Amino acid sequence: MTTPAVDAAQELAAFLRTRRERLDPRDFALPWRRQSRRTPGLRREEVAELAGVSTDYIVRLEQARGLRPSAGVVEALAGALRLPPGERAYLFNLAQQRPRSAGEPATTAAPPLARLVDDLSPLPVMLMNHRYDILAWNGEMARLLLDFGTLPPSRRNAMWLCLMHPEIREFYVDRDRVVREAVAHLRAAWAACPHDEALSGLIAEFTAHDEEFARLWAERDIKANGRGSKVIRHPEAGEIALRFEVLTPLQDPDQQLVIYRAADEKSRQALDRLRAR
To answer: Is residue 67 domain-shared with residue 126, that is, in the same domain?
Structure first.
């Protein structure tokens, strides 16, 4: 039996209707209307009023009459219907729009993720936000790269370390490729969070003080770097070939787990020696 293809317009219409009908009018500061309600939930004109659109627009959406709401309208509808994060994301997907980042970017590790960073030992693991701020790390990562706790919080940033830190600058065997991919990833993050002043400040600092970054930034390459490999020159363990995975938790999409593994037996032995210190 063939599964029927999803009609996005029909599903969007049905989703908006069901979410409107489950709302309790008493929870909203709307003008009282004396006439009895024949159907549960809010009226279409009430949702229109809350979202700042016309009633006719809501009618046409709920009747799947060929409209494709903008990201701004989808955001307003999600707010009017009081959608939780999962349903908000679903609405954006149905409308084929990309949601704006909700709330302030994470500057501290979510406690369950901080515990997970430790639980993933003996693998070297760290937790970052979208602008490469390092929010948590385990002992294995500290021995592999650097004890980030020795740095002021403003310098616990993987991009800053790669560009500016005198020791980390020389860590990567294929440094040109590593920096190029990191800059392309940072540009993608910047495009998704254009109002993040801290991120814009970092980019301005890098552009002003590092010619390599300024040149690569001007090339406008984009890359979501979720998996790859690196070879580092460790001052005690020698060359270590690493593979990495970047995982994004559903509950905390602004935070990313970076997990390193040895790429070969020689590198695994080098990591074992570091752990034994």
So the answer is: no
Boundary-marking domain end, from 61, 94, 127:
94
Domain carrying residue 81: 8-94
Number of domains in the chain: 2
The amino acid sitting at 20 is R
Would you write out the chain's pLDDT as a tens digit for each of its 277 residues?
A: 444 455 788 888 999 999 999 998 888 876 655 455 667 789 999 999 999 999 999 999 999 887 889 989 999 999 999 998 778 888 888 888 876 655 566 788 989 999 999 999 999 999 999 899 999 999 999 999 999 999 999 899 999 999 999 889 889 999 999 999 999 989 888 877 777 888 999 999 999 999 999 999 998 888 777 899 999 999 999 999 999 999 999 888 889 999 999 999 999 999 999 988 7
CATH code (residue 71): 1.10.260.40
Q: Decide if 102 is inside a domain.
A: no
Q: Is residue 170 part of a domain?
A: yes
In a shared domain, residues 162 and 244: yes
Stated pTM of the model: 0.72
